[in-house]
Amino acid sequence: MQTIPFLRKTGEAPFTDRGIKKAGQLLKPWTGEGVKGVAITGAPLSKTSISHSGAFMAPQTIRQMMHSFSTYSIEQETDMWDGVITDFGDIEMHVTDLIQSQNRIYSALKEIQSQHNGALIITLGGDHSVSAGAIKAFQETRGRVGIIQFDAHFDLRNTEDGGPSNGTPFRQLIENGVISGDQLVQLGIRDFSNGKLYHDYAKDNGVTVYTMGDIKREGLLTLLKKSVEQLKQTTDNIYISLDMDVLDQAFAPGCPAIGPGGLDSDSLIEGIQWLGENPSVKGMDIVEIDPTLDFRNMTSRLAAYIIMQFSLFYSKREGGK
Amino acid sequence: MQTIPFLRKTGEAPFTDRGIKKAGQLLKPWTGEGVKGVAITGAPLSKTSISHSGAFMAPQTIRQMMHSFSTYSIEQETDMWDGVITDFGDIEMHVTDLIQSQNRIYSALKEIQSQHNGALIITLGGDHSVSAGAIKAFQETRGRVGIIQFDAHFDLRNTEDGGPSNGTPFRQLIENGVISGDQLVQLGIRDFSNGKLYHDYAKDNGVTVYTMGDIKREGLLTLLKKSVEQLKQTTDNIYISLDMDVLDQAFAPGCPAIGPGGLDSDSLIEGIQWLGENPSVKGMDIVEIDPTLDFRNMTSRLAAYIIMQFSLFYSKREGGK
Amino acid sequence: MQTIPFLRKTGEAPFTDRGIKKAGQLLKPWTGEGVKGVAITGAPLSKTSISHSGAFMAPQTIRQMMHSFSTYSIEQETDMWDGVITDFGDIEMHVTDLIQSQNRIYSALKEIQSQHNGALIITLGGDHSVSAGAIKAFQETRGRVGIIQFDAHFDLRNTEDGGPSNGTPFRQLIENGVISGDQLVQLGIRDFSNGKLYHDYAKDNGVTVYTMGDIKREGLLTLLKKSVEQLKQTTDNIYISLDMDVLDQAFAPGCPAIGPGGLDSDSLIEGIQWLGENPSVKGMDIVEIDPTLDFRNMTSRLAAYIIMQFSLFYSKREGGK
Amino acid sequence: MQTIPFLRKTGEAPFTDRGIKKAGQLLKPWTGEGVKGVAITGAPLSKTSISHSGAFMAPQTIRQMMHSFSTYSIEQETDMWDGVITDFGDIEMHVTDLIQSQNRIYSALKEIQSQHNGALIITLGGDHSVSAGAIKAFQETRGRVGIIQFDAHFDLRNTEDGGPSNGTPFRQLIENGVISGDQLVQLGIRDFSNGKLYHDYAKDNGVTVYTMGDIKREGLLTLLKKSVEQLKQTTDNIYISLDMDVLDQAFAPGCPAIGPGGLDSDSLIEGIQWLGENPSVKGMDIVEIDPTLDFRNMTSRLAAYIIMQFSLFYSKREGGK
Amino acid sequence: MQTIPFLRKTGEAPFTDRGIKKAGQLLKPWTGEGVKGVAITGAPLSKTSISHSGAFMAPQTIRQMMHSFSTYSIEQETDMWDGVITDFGDIEMHVTDLIQSQNRIYSALKEIQSQHNGALIITLGGDHSVSAGAIKAFQETRGRVGIIQFDAHFDLRNTEDGGPSNGTPFRQLIENGVISGDQLVQLGIRDFSNGKLYHDYAKDNGVTVYTMGDIKREGLLTLLKKSVEQLKQTTDNIYISLDMDVLDQAFAPGCPAIGPGGLDSDSLIEGIQWLGENPSVKGMDIVEIDPTLDFRNMTSRLAAYIIMQFSLFYSKREGGK
Amino acid sequence: MQTIPFLRKTGEAPFTDRGIKKAGQLLKPWTGEGVKGVAITGAPLSKTSISHSGAFMAPQTIRQMMHSFSTYSIEQETDMWDGVITDFGDIEMHVTDLIQSQNRIYSALKEIQSQHNGALIITLGGDHSVSAGAIKAFQETRGRVGIIQFDAHFDLRNTEDGGPSNGTPFRQLIENGVISGDQLVQLGIRDFSNGKLYHDYAKDNGVTVYTMGDIKREGLLTLLKKSVEQLKQTTDNIYISLDMDVLDQAFAPGCPAIGPGGLDSDSLIEGIQWLGENPSVKGMDIVEIDPTLDFRNMTSRLAAYIIMQFSLFYSKREGGK
Ligand SMILES: [Ca+2]
Ligand SMILES: [Ca+2]
Ligand SMILES: [Ca+2]
Ligand SMILES: [Ca+2]
Ligand SMILES: [Ca+2]
Ligand SMILES: [Ca+2]
Ligand SMILES: [Ca+2]
Ligand SMILES: [Ca+2]
Ligand SMILES: [Ca+2]
Ligand SMILES: [Ca+2]
Ligand SMILES: [Ca+2]
Ligand SMILES: [Ca+2]
């Protein structure tokens, strides 16, 4: 075989520094073997959004943003250099049959979680509609689920007006009997972003709702601890559903439904670190980033940073993880 | 008359959910009858700006952003579903005669406030030059005015160098004898954004000035309470003049004169809520948003949110409002 | 009823000149009566696109661009001042059931064309998938259709891989027996924009294909005359399906599938004028403009100009139109 | 005096090549002496525009774009290295008194042309409203004017509806008795961009109008020759008023009133070259470029190129110029 | 090994149609074996540009744009489905030592062309500085070179003022004795884009220069035939150096040095097709596309189309190629 | 000499208000005399950046942003109206020899600081590579330097992999024996933005490192006081090296290496004020702003504001400064 000086393959990094490994390099395509630790799967579905959304591009953009970060945490003095985040790739979506696309998400994630019991799967949306299948698959493979949903919105809309969309995932889970309301805690619900009818629905079904006002008064960490305690009493494992629009528009300018009055990014990061280390947490999704609307991929970059912080604190868990 | 399935008129919402009403739907065009409660009027004038400004587009953009929000406040557990915000439309501006445009703002607003004594008019600029006429009309119909001006700038420039512009409204009001300086409280005045000559003018005329430093030290709410107490001693009603550039550039990227060192949006919202509930407050304008400079209409969206929060707390006032 | 000076309703033009009427003002919402002449209907569907598309926004943007033009043609010395273009509004799309959305397009357009025999309906896409239903409805109400398709692409893809999408409308029409291939003439088909399999399909089904090379050699007008002659022999009426990506990327920068080597806008306008005057032409759609990708709405503005030129020459037709 | 190695003053070119002089370096600020040859003056007025316009920025942007070009014409094998284009700077505009701004343009240009009889002044708008004063000043100092106006629009609107705006300059000149209609030739007038009322006005006043159709049929050069012949019979000197929106939107994307169906840039350049060499031409303005709307300053760059081609061919004139 | 339904690997196409193969799929990473036919190599160097340039990103962007096209030419009725364009990847650049980066380009390309005698290498810049090394390597491996340079600029600047930059490649080749001027034909040289000093240099060294005026008068194809005839008399093989700024700014908006008065894309494509089929042509580079400045990757998309047309006509060559 | 009414020279402010002087007007080009007080020098080098950077444009943009501010501080009730900030202009960079460019920065700054002992030079980058030369020059003219580096990154990379880049300045200073590690304090170092190898290097060399976590726990002011105390024990003067990416992406969107988890702008401003007044501080650079990536020049505007606050507090220093 011939060699040629200075050539690097298309797609490889244009410059390498011996002392820096990119977080993106931790991503290793799944090769068919059993997987442990953190793994990601893309669910590039956003035609299910009520408003126009390019969130289907987020899995690819978040992966790229992983290349903005290195593997070293100075705060923890921990280097994830030898770590691996398995990349299962993306679930293939149907062009026109959106129900089938949602079914594929459920099927693929169920198979992945069934085969890879030791893996903590982070599903990258797509819009929030992907969580319905993701959570159903999670519960069927990992036991009774307790959900911590970060969101400005309930996502409890009726499914008759527009079908199963990014406004309905938690309604679907309840209506279809997958979960009951007490398995769900919602954090960051905001003024003028929801309907009273759906707040009533949340109450009627025993969903726990913490508003932005609650967070400002009590602190996110306090509410997270309270939520995990509560959920642990009736569920086996906790699943985080992170809709990035829980953040204020100044910190997550790339969500379709941005607005003022939301969380700042530092608080969210602190919350994710705490959840990352908590042994009850066994699944997560990150949804509602539309790279076509973002500024300099800020929101995807924050998502990549959250994946790294979560993985870092996950690696600090003791024992059975 | 014939009917055709699935048709909706041009301009109507492409999707409706039975459980959600858009804040924008609260806006009802004025039909010639007497008006109560909150009402909006557009004053689309920005050729009067010292620098290039597309603020004349803000009334239309803010109305559109009202469609980003619903009618339900979860923090107050109050639904404004059946509420109405009367929309008087926009005041027609002259293409080239800017003095006439300013006169039209005064005339129209005076007529509106004279005819509709029970209405709280929110005037949507346009640039800050619109406040001169708006406040004059307010005082002539509602009694001696006390003004709470949120602004990084005094807006007390001389009117000889460039005529009555967005840098001069409060100077005009004082020079023309409409108000005396003790009727005016300025909040959020910022370093390197004003001239000493005009600070001297403020002092000489008894204007109360709170800088950003004052706000950081004492808190916006404290200063607002102090301001309202003070103004109530000598005036009949309070008028809020909200120049969005009082905010830091990270939170209001769409103002012509953005800069660092300003207010954060949460503090402003809290202040507006308090003012909304205060029975002395009887008028407001929101100015200096240029939609052509904004990112994803963030600043207009914040203005729409402020209108909703103000209206919500306004509806909580007891008695005569 | 009270009046207030200088007020104009929200949405009305900020300035009016007595000597100029905007083309956009010719658009009159349908009021339930019988319609003659040119009419438009929006088919805001683009979730059916293979690639991400905001083409669903085009009907609204094209209407806005009608306000960029006046009613007067100096070339023809004809003023359409008193003309009317009926606006049937938009067909409401389902959020998640795309097949139902396509059915609604068919149903609504069939009903419109059935009720309004004297009207020439211009359907505004949306992506090219809307043409399948539009043409079926046209034929069922107006007799055997001859289609002149301007396009860089065949749109004859198989429907098994992704369902009925913007790559399949003419395949659907043939497969479903709505038309046979000899009812279809394709103009502007381009290199490296199609598959051989589908060229074979076109040939096997008797579709007439003129490439960009053919247009450059023979001239668009020549080929249009030849096409209309040919189609008139076996069909009753001609329908124009105008995919704006038949144009070169320099002239239609807002199509999802832009590319070099296409038509220039002057040639297309000339062709549309000729077709507008031709009494055989009885229907048209304009598709594949994505306003979120465009520069200064150039492509929608061109579409609006095409509607005006078509309407102008339509009004010159003699006799029964 | 001390020296420091490698320093260059703020604003100087970061790199200099001994073999290349920038066209921008030909611009020499006026120093109070008598001027010959080509000179530029900025008239940064666009608040007079009917629609929002940043055309006031064009003089500065066109000057910057002069730095994109060198001084050497390979086609003519002529180097303008030692040439000078005098830069009179910009006329200062009033912030709010637009009539005064227009008067200042007239006064300044009259004084310049009166003092500098040997200079050919190119006035850089701004919007087209600047031409009214510019042409009046031209005629009062240079004798009876013949005008060649490149434009998609008549600019003959009535001045009652909105005052003297960018839609009225030639109407003002006729109404105020400065010119009669036979002194004016309009080239490039376009469909659906004008009102019949104003076409009638043009005809009634003896204005010569060549449409885009005329240009396509007869060729721009032919019409220019015909126009100059005609104007020379009754006027002393010819003035070019170049509204860049005479060009198609693909070639001049930065004009406020862009549209399809216009001139291509090569034809315009050829026309300008011919006019540059014609000894009758003694004045020019270039208007209606809004740098805030342009793509990569394409339209201002073209304007700079036109100034260079005009100056090059001007330098080829024999005798009295 | 386990399998999971619907998964596709990161980076794979989200949708596949059985009848369409993307041109991008023709690109096969080099695997160390001998290569025939067309091959590409990226030379991602643009720190050598006189002005700020992101042209180093073009190789990756052009590859992506290959995915905008299919493999089928309808004009030639030829499908390149089974074809291969070998992708040698990118040559690794040094961060700060630009001379070393240029040397690496030379070394890598020399090795590639030496090893792969049957391959026609298309080097993707990068800026035009990459051509100096590319052409030297070409001549040393393929025999005496005749160069056809498409460019608005001579690129014959002195190397003393700024070193070997994107303004100097052909000067370097002559000064270093690699070529003599008669081996070089320049097409598309433009007014006000060059210095007289360098035109003199071209003449003194026997370089053949065809200006845009020459192309407009004689036609590009005529000049190309004349050029190839001339070069064939004294050289062994022809190398095309395609600086995309030979095109008019309307057709190549993404070149750093855009301007009016250039070639249209159709003419260039026609020229490339003719050169692609000409058996003398044995090498090519495509340079000066800055994806950060482009609109919708139009210029990179055109480059990808040119690669496809060149490859198509290359495949039509008879005999030894 | 002739005069002409209303003319202002190209580049002068279009509007002047008698009561406001722009901060930008404080900038006076150096005229060859001795300089005292604050002075700026541009070091427009960013080809040395590891990633693509337009930071070379920042000196010019920051100067422009100085025109966004006035000279009056209301918080200090101090007007800098009669102050002067000397502008030494920019150091001329070589097009291709980046080492020479770095040497020029060192030479020019050494000469400036040697000639002007009473001046506090603020060097405007450019990328962080400019600090190596700037600090070496500072120490050679002002005595043993103590460095306070605000940065998300160590900038202690090895220089073998890519030469002296924006990732290596402090490594270069240590390796070349210019400083020892105890002369350097780093503030704001962030997770996943650095390599462990370089943290080890910092520790091994006695560099003081405060992370973002440290700042959040202890407060920036506390750490600054501690740092200055420590540095004063072994050094003569303190130099601030301000990499703007120490800020969170929400507050400095225009840095090449933006990310979440950084400092907010108010804290930084407060720190800079304290340092400005501290008599030990004798030099500063501001680096890593890329105006081509910024939104509305927010980051350059903040840099200009920082220069003003620093200069204001600098003017409050007592005695020898
Ligand atoms: Ca959600
Ligand atoms: Ca949400
Ligand atoms: Ca103000
Ligand atoms: Ca203000
Ligand atoms: Ca199509
Ligand atoms: Ca198409
Ligand atoms: Ca005009
Ligand atoms: Ca015009
Ligand atoms: Ca070149
Ligand atoms: Ca070139
Ligand atoms: Ca740094
Ligand atoms: Ca840094």
TrEMBL record, chains A, B, C, D, E, F:
Cofactor binding notes: Binds 2 manganese ions per subunit.
CDD domains noted in UniProt: Agmatinase-like (cd09990)
The enzyme's E.C. designation: 3.5.3.8
Keyword list, A-Z: Histidine metabolism, Hydrolase, Manganese, Metal-binding
UniProt GO molecular function: agmatinase activity; formimidoylglutamase activity; metal ion binding
Membership in a protein family: Belongs to the arginase family.
Protein name per the record: Formimidoylglutamase
Organism annotation: Fictibacillus arsenicus
Lineage of origin: Bacteria, Bacillati, Bacillota, Bacilli, Bacillales
